[in-house]
Amino acid sequence: MIHELATLTIDPARAAAFEAAVAEARPHFEAAGGFVSFALHRSVENPARYHLVVGWESVEAHMIDFRESEGFQVWRSLAGPFFTAPPCVEHLAQAI
Fold first, then answer.
1. Quick one: pLDDT at residue 25?
2. pLDDT tens per residue, range 52-74
3. How far apart are the C-alpha atoms of 91 and 2, rounded to whole Å?
4. What is the DSSP letter of 10?
């Protein structure tokens, strides 16, 4: 299993609407092949920054099964308007 870590920056004044949009988009992640888990964390020190942490069976499950799906397009249409900077996405493998 790997984790997708997406750092998302938004206008903090729109946080409640952004969180509602992410909650609306969540079922589209869950429906994707290879989906394992989902969490959204908000930075305490920087309330404009969120970390979306999605567990996938593999990088391919994220980059192919999800990113090439209609669900990804729905995710971007719901959350994308809130982004004030392009998301930074990386994949993490557990080290210990």
1. 98
2. 999 999 999 999 999 999 999 99
3. 7
4. B
Q: What is the 3-state secondary structure (H, E, C) of 51-86?
A: EEEEEECCHHHHHHHHCCCHHHHHHHHHHHHHECCC
Token duo for residue 57: 């069976």
| Distance from C-alpha of 68 to C-alpha of 61, rounded to nearest angstrom | 10
Name the burial class of residue 10, with classes exposed (0-12), middle (13-18) and buried (19+) by CB atoms within 10 angstroms of its CB.
Answer: buried
Q: Closest Cα to residue 7, out of 53, 45, 57, 56?
A: 53
Averaged pLDDT for residues 13-34? 98
- Euclidean distance between CA atoms 59 and 15, whole angstroms: 29
13 secondary structure, DSSP code: G
Using one digit for the tens of pLDDT, what is the confidence trace for 70-87?
Answer: 999 999 999 999 999 999
